[in-house]
Structures are given as structure tokens and as C-alpha cells.
Amino acid sequence: MKGTENSARRNRERHMKVKGILIDPADHVVTLSAAVKAGEKVSYLKADKICCQTAAEDIPKYHKMAIIHIDKGQRIMKYGEQIGTATKEITAGGWVHIHNLQSAGLVSEKVTEAGTDRTICGETKKERL
Amino acid sequence: MRGYIRPDGKVGIRNHVLILPCSLCASETARFAAQNVKGTVYVANQGGCSLSRRDLQITLETLSGLAANPNIYGTILVGNGCEVVQASLLADKIRQKTCKPLEVLVIREEGGSVRTAARITELAEKMRAKADQVPAVETSMDRLILGTECGGSDPTSGLAANPVVGVCSDLLVKRGGTVILSETPELIGTEEILSKRCKNEQVKERLLSMIKAYEQDFILVGENPRSGNPTPGNIAGGITTLEEKSLGCIHKAGSSVIQEVVEYGSPINERGLVVMDTPGQDIASIVGMAAAGAQMVVFTTGHGTPTGSGIVPVVKLTANEETAVLMKDNIDFDCSRVLTEGSSLEAAGGELFELIERVACGQETKAEELGFQDVSLARYCNFA
After folding, report:
1. Which of B341, B343, B345, B351 should we substitute to test contact with A (largest number of A Cβ atoms within 10 Å)?
2. What angle do CA B76, B81, B82 make, to 5 degrees?
3. What is the pLDDT of chain B when averaged over all its residues?
């Protein structure tokens, strides 16, 4: 019983630092189990090793933080799968959400001189400027 | 696993006598009788009449499947007499699926509700006594069909609870058991990902057409399931895209190869990971999986949901530490330490598997202790 308590305490202590949850080793983002402030160091477990990334901005609880630099147009991985495409360049430690990540296959926008081509489920609709 | 071997060769982990009304008109009479006999379960049937042809087919498949579920020793079928789901029609369908004990009563022919209830009570007591003679024998986990479900989801569901179930699902498939992934609307957006996991082209085609058909049905009534998802609440909670939301959901089925795609409530033929076409309504989805022969369902929740089934034990887990405390009457497994203490998903998934083994050996779930018997059947059209 004492062993269990010690192990729980060790886990808790370790978790004081571990705020990022990396679901799959291939992921580009971690999900935060608590809100973080810009400049705060966020630890996460990768294959049982503790890794660290400094938050580049304030990020709310349960939201995603990039753990690598992501270029505009690059696919973003979570759960070991693509969850969408970056619509802007994202620095490591940046907040990843609707302002810089968009669904990949489902909605794609192509801005042309004539207006915006919005493709939803394979059907292209033109929206005039 | 401790099982009851049925005459049709299947293995149950519970040994219930089922009182099954054919329609809502027979439901209250059946309920009255079910309350009289300890050890019976009852299906509160809200349908069974004024059905379109397609809904009649769904209802027959589902109700017969519940009677054929391996957790059921035998069934007392109760009709009113004039409903679309005629007792004789449903009895035939049950007999096509199983050779287990079946009694059939019609309220009008018995001479009203009081006489029928007395007759059901008499038959149920006899059937219960015979059921008690069936021994529970040691059997292996490869006979288990485990349904997976999520409901009352919050950010902790996709982040921890569903991945924990995913670990457990993979363990069961490795042991030779079967796992069902359900809820077609939550598969929308994961077509490419799931396609890669199908065992062959035929299964892939079946899966894609199932998801497309579900989406088309929504579009027919002027809804677009993609445009409403993720919901504003999901986005506030940190979910950005539909793929991300759906991935969080499908994670509970683990990472195995998809062996088969089956219709709502239809029997499962393959072992390993199977996908069933069920609606997003949790209880209807659980009933569909029970009708397909699942002996147990594992259910992840964020906000906490009290649901239980008379046919199958429903093991409920949460990764939300507040829910685990507030809803302790309802939650069987608390995996919030994945988020609060940084414990690994693998360790929590292993513990969940051990719990499932204990439930398969007879340990009651919280919903079983409470006697909860939620029922909802999927349907397609409004009442005719």
C-alpha cells in the first residue's frame, strides 16, 4: 500500500511538470492538461522520456501546442493521423487552433481573382468577392 | 471469462430471462409481469407499430437479435395482436437466429392484460428455474464481443478515455476476441483513415458507402453533418477540425484491421475489429450492438451518463476527475490520472482490460447494481 502511495506521489510530482499529452509519437502537437502562459515550459512524455517545449503564447486548457515548427500548407498530425493543414506558419510552442489549422480533405478554399472556390465534400461552389 | 453455453453454441456472460413486448401496446403489460419475477429483464419497446417497411425490417432484426443475445437464456414474447410487429412474425425471426427457449403470448388471445400478466409471470418463473440450472463454466476471452460507445463527451473523452479504451480493444483483439466500433455519424471525416485499415477492398467499399448513405440521409432533410461539426462547444474545448473530433472518437476501437462492416443490429460473422452502422444516439447504438450479439459494452463519458442495459453490462469510464467524483454512482472506472498524474495510456488500458475480465466473470457494473434497462431502437422514418 505504501509503495502504491509513493508511486502515486512520484507520478504527481512528475506531473507537476508534465502538462502536455502526446498521444502518438508521430504527432506534431501536444494537448495541454492545464492552461499555460507564454514563456512557460511544457513537459510531455515521448516513449517514456520527458521532453520539453516552451510555450510561445498563452494557450487554454485542453488546447493544442505545436512541438515542432510547422510551415504553411503542411499537414498537422495528432492521434498519429492528419487532423488538417496549417493555414499559416506556426512556430514551435505556438497555439494550434482554428486561426491556423483547417480541415484538410473536407473544406478547401482557393482564392482566385474571380472569387473564392470553396470545395465541400468534393463539390465546388463559387463565392463571389 | 465465466460463460453460460447456449444451445446455439454461443456463450453468454449473464443468464437473463427476457420479457419482450412486440410493440408499445404490449409494453406496459410486459413491464407489469417483469416486475413480478426476479431475475427477468424487460425491453421497454416504444415502437413496433405504424412502421415503414424499412423500419419494420430494422425492428425485427433488432428485437430478434436481443432475444438471440447470448446473455439471454430464453424469451417470453408478448404481442397485443394488431401491431405491425406481429408476435408470430417476430417469433419466426427469433427462431431463424436461435434455438433457445421461446414462449409466445398475445394479449387479446389471453383475454386482456391481467390474464396475460399472470400467464407471463407463470411462464417466466418456470423459465427462470430452468435458467438457474445452467452452470457457469470457465471459457476464454476470445468468445467475448465487446461493443464500444462514447457519450456525454468532453475534451477528456478524446484525449484520454477513448485512447484508454483503444488500448483495451487492441488487447482483446490480440486475445482473439471481437470489438465493435459504432456510431456512423462520428465516422464522418475519418473515411481516408479507416479505409487504410480495412482488410480488403470489399470491406472498404462497404464502409465508405455506409458513411456516405448516412450523410445523404441528413442532406435529404436539409442538414449537413459536416458543417455543424465540430460544434461551438467542441471548438471552445480545443477541438479544431472534424477529423480531429472523429479521430478522438474512433480511437476507442484501437488500431486493429477492420474485418467486417455490419448493418444495425445484424449478427456479426467475423472476429477482430468490426464496424456497425449505428446512429449517434448512445442508447440506440448500445441496443444495436447487443442485438448483434455483443455480451458487454464499454462506454466512455466526459460529463457522466447513467445509462445501463438489461441485456448487456455497460462498463462506464471517465477521464474527467470531477465527473468521477460527482457521478460515482454511475462510473465504473476512473482513468483521470492519465491527465492528473501523467500515468500512461497503456497502464490504464491494461487496468480496464482487467476490469472487463472481472465483469465477464460476473462482477456487476454500477448500472447493473442500479437495475438500469435503457432501451432505444434506431429508426429511419416517422411513424406511418
Report:
1. B341
2. 135
3. 95
Contact between chains at B344 and A48 (C-beta distance less than 8 A) = yes
Among B166, B170, B162, B172, residue whose Cα is nearest residue B319: B162
Mean pLDDT over B145-154 rounds to 93
Q: Report CB contact under 8 Å: B240, A105.
A: no
The alpha carbon of residue A129 is apart from the nearest alpha carbon of chain B, in Å, by: 22
List, as ranges, residues 282-341 from B with C-beta within 8 Å of A. 337-341
Distance spanning both ends of chain A, measured CA to CA: 68
Tell me how far apart the alpha carbons of residues B134 and B132 are, in angstroms, rounded to a whole number: 5
Whether the Cβ atoms of residue B98 and residue B13 lie closer than 8 Å to each other = no
Say what the pLDDT of residue A19 is. Answer: 83
pLDDT band at B218 (very low <50, low <70, confident <90, very high): confident
How large is the greatest C-alpha to C-alpha distance in chain B, in angstroms? Answer: 64
Between B168 and A4, the higher pLDDT residue = B168
Q: What cell does B302 get?
A: 466526459
Q: Can you tell me the distance from the alpha carbon of B121 to that of B39, in angstroms, rounded to the nearest whole number?
A: 12
CA distance B129 to B39: 10
| Residues in a beta bridge with A111 | A116
Residue B270 has pLDDT above 50, yes or no: yes
Residue B253 confidence (pLDDT): 94
Q: How many Å lie between the alpha carbon of B342 and the closest alpha carbon of chain A?
A: 5
Structure confidence at residue B47 as a pLDDT band (50, 70, 90): very high
